[in-house]
Each structure stands twice: as structure tokens, then as C-alpha cells.
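Summary for the steering committee. One of the milestones for this cycle was to obtain a three-dimensional model of the protein with guanosine-5'-diphosphate bound, which we needed before selecting residues for the alanine scan. The sequence and ligand used are listed below.
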Amino acid sequence: MAGGIGGARFLRGLRAALRADEPTASITVIGNTGDDITLFGLRVCPDLDTVMYTLGEGIDEQQGWGRAKESFAVKDELASYGAQPQWFGLGDRDIATHILRTQWLAEGVPLSEVTARLCERWRPGVRLLPMSDDKVETHVVIDDGASGGRRLIHFQEWWVRLHAQAPALEITAVGAATATPAPGVVEAIADADVVLLPPSNPIVSIGTILAVPGIRQALVATSAPVVGVSPIIGGAPVRGMADACLTARGVETSAAAVGALYGPSLIDGWLVDTVDAGAAVDGVEVRSRPLLMTDVEATADIARAALALAAEVRA
Ligand code: GDP
Ligand code: CA
């Protein structure tokens, strides 16, 4: 199960580890679509695209999202018309992906099939499934000081435009309650040898995937060991503003608290950073090691440690 940058980078390490150690293994990714947004008529799926571009060698490495060697002529032209919003960085190369996706969706092709078609170009070396073919969008209720009330905005506006600075009163995955898992999602969890939760945002990435009815149940029911890797190191996210999401849900920003949020019904093992070696989670095996995904080799070793913990809790 993967969000954007954290999930994608972990997957690159996992793929490298398996290619070296277990070349017949295959990876199925269940991607978060709660960050999806329609901009200028185009359906944008940031987390699916981050995974696809990262594993397909098309990502902007520095930024961690978007296309390498990107240009922004379309964005500039839109701005010249005064078109809104201007806070979302849609690059020219990236827009080609969104045009095709939107065209296929309009023809009635489900998102899972659209994603498979896009992956024919990128060959990510994994089977990338959206969590659902149904539209789910994370929205955030913020305390709008200016108008003195509560205002509901799209997650992207809160995250990208407001940098999660406006305290979130509520974070909800709109549409999740009536969504169904995409074809193959529940089966992948049921048939897996191991299920891994990468260091993705526990609320708006993993939490949103789990909010699709049937997915959490599949995770609880699977006979496969489930191991998570902490996105929180030393009381802070490594990058991004996951702390603002955790705070909105009343969860402390710590490796132990995120482990407890998943809890023993979901996870069997929890990998934390060395600085969090003291973290304990009731009913969950906790192990510690360095968790900074500095390069592919370091990340492959993190993935190996997660797989080793899975083997340990299975025994
Ligand atoms: P997003 O959709 O782009 O926000 O990406 P994800 O939800 O997949 O992952 C975001 C999380 O990845 C953040 O909470 C970060 O703390 C975490 N993260 C980023 N880099 C690292 C890293 O090197 N190590 C660990 N353990 N977590 C990381
Ligand atoms: Ca995301």
C-alpha cells in the first residue's frame, strides 16, 4: 500500500532487494487515490503518478514528484488568462499523462485499466492498482480565521497552497464509504506472502486506502504477515507535513503512536528508526534500524529488514 514519495522510494528499494534476492517474487502496489483532483478538466492522480514515474525512471529526483526535465509553458499560459488555481504545479510533460487519463476515463475505462495502460509505457516492474475505481477525494475542514468559521477545502489546497499551516479540524475521505476496492486489491492482500506498509503518510495515504470498505478487513483477515515501516523519525516526519495530519486526528507525531494507530489488528511487525529504538507497541513486534531512504541501496536494506521481520513474525 503506497502513497506518493515515501511509498515510491520504498518501492524502488523493495524492487531492488527482490531482484537481487528473490527474482521470481512479484510486487502488487495498492495506490492511494484520495489525493486525486480535477484541474482544468483534467483528472490528476498524484500518488499513482509518483509511483509510476519513480519506478519508471521518469521522476524529478530532486523534487520527488513530477516529471524530470519538466517545463511549465501551459501553466504560464493559463496564468496569463488569470485562470485559477495557480498553486498546483502542472508541468507540460505531466499534462500529457492527465490528458490521456481523462480521455480514457471519459470513454468509460475504469481507473485501474487506465493505470495499467499508462504503465505500459513506464514499465514500473510492479503491478500498480488504484485502491478503488470509484472517485474518492480527501477534503479538509480548516478553521478559517478570516471568515470566522469552518471551511471545507480539497486536500491539495490545504497541502500545496496552505502548506498544512491552517490547522485541520477534520480530514475526511469523501466518497470512501461507498467506494469498492479496485479489481485485484482484496485478492492481492488475501494471496500475498507478505504485506508491507511503506513509510507513507499514515492518515492521508495509508489511512485513506484503509477507509475503502473491504481493504482494512482484508488486511485483518490475511494470513500473510503485515509489517509497517515508520515515516516518523525522532518525533517528526522525514519530509512533508504528516505531523499536521496526525494532530488533526489526535495522534502524537511519534513512531510509537503511529505503530499504535495501526495496532495489532492490522500489523504484526513495526520497523522504527534507531533513534526510536525505545518505541513499544502493544501486541506488535518492534525492531529498529536506520530508516533514512538516502539511496536505492540503503532503501533496499530497509526493505530487506522489513521482509526479515515479516519472516520472524510468521514463524
Ligand atoms: P506523499 O503522498 O508524497 O506525501 O508520500 P507518502 O504518503 O508515500 O509518504 C510521505 C511520508 O514519507 C512522510 O510522512 C515522510 O516522513 C516519509 N518519508 C519520506 N522520506 C523518508 C525516509 O527517507 N525515511 C522514512 N522512514 N520516511 C520517509
Ligand atoms: Ca499523496
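Key point for the committee: Residues 2 and 238 are 16 Å apart (CA to CA).
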